[in-house]
Every structure is written in structure tokens, then in C-alpha cells.
Amino acid sequence: MHTTQQAIDFASNDYLGLARSEELYDLIRQTTATQSHVNGAGGSRLLTGHTTCAQSTEEMLAMIFKSDTTLIFNSGYAANQGVLSSIPQKGDTILYDELAHACIRDGARLSLAQRFSFRHNNLDDLEQKLKGAAGNVFIAVESVYSMDGDICPLKDLIPLAEKYHAIVILDEAHSTGVFGTGGAGLAVALGLEDRVPIRIYTFGKAMGVHGACVAGSGVLRDYLINFARTFIYTTALAPHSITAIKCAFEFLASHSDLQNTLASRVAFFTASADKHSIHRIKSQTQIQGVVVPGNQSVKKLANSLAMAGMDVRPILPPTVAHGSERVRICLHCYNSEKEISELVEALSNIGR
């Protein structure tokens, strides 16, 4: 699908506009100018890639995410894969939501543990799976699901996990920056951080930079340093990338209005879409979806929106199941109410 630079962005994961922020760009540039002029890490963290900047940034992130420690990975994909491939052992069980991201599935495949999916956000189905689970049990879920935009029922899932002595692994990719004070994510926003032993945060979406981290105990950090292959056997993030992570969170701390603006844009879209009877997936987050079954039908809708100057992407199998093809709408704090109204009007007219 062809779009132009002038198209209104309803496709990117830049929810808070930090990836395009000139203020943040200047802050990163000014900060890196005062540091040693090194372009790359030169090796893994276990060789030459560990720096005082990485250590201080991890300490800052631990304070934001209200965890004992954090460990920076090169991406959310690497973090999830590293956690799930190294911690569950032979004889253990991984239970993952059927809509979990590919990196969670891939990490589970690399583990020697047995793995089973449970129906999306269905705690009854999860409990049935928990009753038959062997060994140490791990439940892998996401705070906000990337294609449906709905939220994990953490308040009910955690007591269920505790009942069966299962360990929750929470991917906060699409809630990082969006929810919680300072962008601390859903678990912190709900006051449940002490009951989620393993949390993964991604910085390439709402935070506008790159990288990720795993938040948890000191034992968890030490274990991952020694056994997570996606941490051990890869070149560490460049100093510039580490600095960018630090600057992004410092910037958000003084611009909390961005989170409030995004929330108001989401509320405006959902109210407008419901008023116009748009058949959207019921989501109250920045990720919205309008299901249009069939590859050709959803491509036609996306192209029609592109012709109207709106960048909205079609999502096709195998990313989503056959019959649930949709246009995925990402809302941002920089989308004006006028632009959102135009999108809703276009969706309404196309559906007639």
C-alpha cells in the first residue's frame, strides 16, 4: 500500500509523538555531546559492552518501574525470547494467551518446557489449563494486545496465578509510556507490580527510541545475565541508544500532559466511532481495529483511506486469524480531533 509523507499517521506505534519530537531529539543530542565520543559498544555486555551509562540507566528504570532491578536488552523481541527460552525448564509448563506476540511464542518454542495456549483473556480456560499443568508454571500475557488493543484482566489473572503458584510474565510493550506515572506501564498503574515477578518493557513504541528491559528481582537479573542467550551472545546497544532511553524517560517525566492528551484522543475516537456505528473491536486503548473479513476487502478499505490522506494499514493472516482481517488504527497525542473526525467519517462513508 502506497502512502505519502503528508498522510495523517494512524499507523505507527509512536503514541506519544516522541519518535518525532524535536525537543527530545535536541535533548539526546545535547546529552550525548557531553559524553565520551564512542559510536558503538564494541561487544556484548559481558565483554566490552558494559558501561556506567548502561548501569545508571538500568537503576533509573528500576525506580520508574518499581522493581528491584532491570536489565536492558536490545529489543522487546530479544527480551521476551531471552526470558521464555531460558527460565522455564524441562518438565515445566508455559501457558500463553492465544493472541500473544510472536516473540513470546518463539521464546516458548526454544524452551524445553511444554507449552499450551489458552483462549484470549479467558480466565476459565486458563484455569482449566492450570489444573493440568506440570512442574513450574509460567503464564505469559501482554498488558495491551497489539492487534485488538484490549487489556489483560490483570486484577483477576494475578489471584488465579497465585492460587496455582504460577509465575506471571507480563509483556508491557504497548503500555510502556502510555500508562502509569512516568510511563511505568499497566502493572504499576494498577498497583500490582509486586505481584508480577517478570515484566518486559519496550522502548521502541511510545517511548520513541529503541531497546527494552526486563524488570524484576536481583536473582532474575543475575540469572538472565548468565543464561539468556539473547543477552549474552549479541553486541550491546550503542552508548547513544542507552542515552536516548534515559533522555526519553526524563522527557516524559516533565511532559506527563502527553499521556493525558493521548487518553483524551482515545476517548474522542471511541465516542465518535460508536456514535457513527463503526463496527470496531471493543478497545479503550490507543490501538483500535475495524474488522473487514477477507484480504481483498480489507486492502480495499485501507487503500480508500490512503486516497483520503490517512495512513491506516491492513492486517492480514498469519498476523491475525483468517476471517478477522482488519485495519489497525493507532491513535496518537498529535492526532487532532479534526483528523480523528475525518477518519471516523471516512470509515462511516466507506461502510455504507
Describe the structure.
The strands form three sheets. Strands 2-8-7-6-5-3-4 form a seven-stranded mixed beta sheet, with helices on both faces. Helices cover 41% and strands 15% of the residues. It folds into two domains: 108 residues, Aspartate Aminotransferase, domain 1 (Alpha-Beta Complex), CATH 3.90.1150; 219 residues, Type I PLP-dependent aspartate aminotransferase-like (Major domain) (Aspartate Aminotransferase, domain 2), CATH 3.40.640.10. It is α/β, with parallel strands linked by helices and 352 residues long.
Which key terms come to mind for this protein?
13 helices, 12 strands, Aspartate Aminotransferase, domain 1, 352 residues, 3-stranded antiparallel sheet, alpha/beta, 41% helix, 7-stranded mixed sheet, Aspartate Aminotransferase, domain 2
The CATH superfamily of the largest domain is: Type I PLP-dependent aspartate aminotransferase-like (Major domain)
Tally of individual helices: 13
Shape: globular
The main β sheet shows up as: 7 strands, mixed
Write a compact overview of the structure shown.
With 352 residues, this protein is an alpha/beta fold.
Fold topology:
Elements: E1 8-9, H1 22-33, H2 52-64, E2 69-73, H3 76-86, E3 93-97, H4 102-110, E4 114-118, H5 123-131, E5 137-142, H6 154-163, E6 167-171, H7 186-189, E7 198-202, E8 212-216, H8 218-227, H9 229-232, H10 239-253, H11 257-275, E9 287-291, H12 295-307, E10 310-311, E11 313-315, E12 326-330, H13 337-350
Parallel strand pairs: 1-10, 3-4, 3-5, 5-6, 6-7
Antiparallel strand pairs: 2-8, 7-8, 9-12, 11-12
Helix pairs in contact: 1-10, 2-10, 3-4, 11-13
